[in-house]
Amino acid sequence: MAEHPENYEDVTVYGLDDDMEERLLLAHNECTFIWSNKEGWPVGVIMSYVWHDGCFWLTASSQRARISAVRRDPRVCVVVTSTGTSLPRNMTVTWKGTCEILDDQATKDWFYPALAEAIMGGKGKRAEAFRDFLDSPRRVILKVVPTQRIGYDGTKMGQATTEWMKSRASSAE
Known about the structure:
The protein is α+β, with helices and mostly antiparallel strands and 173 residues long. The chain has a domain at 15-103 and 139-154: Electron Transport, Fmn-binding Protein, Chain A (Pnp Oxidase, Chain A), CATH 2.30.110.10. The protein is built from five helices and seven strands, in the order H-E-E-E-E-H-E-E-H-H-E-H. The chain has helices at 18-27, 65-72, 105-120, 125-134, 154-172, and strands at 30-36, 42-48, 50-52, 55-61, 75-81, 91-102, 139-153. Strands 2-1-5-6-7-4-3 form a seven-stranded antiparallel beta sheet, with helices on both faces.
């Protein structure tokens, strides 16, 4: 555990460990997807994703504004938190990356069932119906290849703060 500083000016010492990040990315199926619009403003929406082969995989209809924005500028950002998972709260990872837009059948053939399973929690009739629902004429797949990471583990900060407060209280006695 890193020594706790006198304040929270630098929280980089509470980074998210690689193994916990992998658990987080596999435990969740929802992220904030962020891109830049024509005016250069960052815009984000909550989207479902699949973490596969070190990339984030998402989908949207090609007439969505985010698709034309990504075609114009493939630099995007994906944010995932532990909220809503069985993992400890206050964990987050942000990835900058480049986004490819795919519409080939081979990608659709593996991705639609994977997303349906992630969202529907199984391979039953509901998952099959959802998979079929996804397979629409204008739908594309977004593949975000991560390039730079910011990870944060609030449990580390909480533990360090508790230890720091105890040591300050005992030294004040």
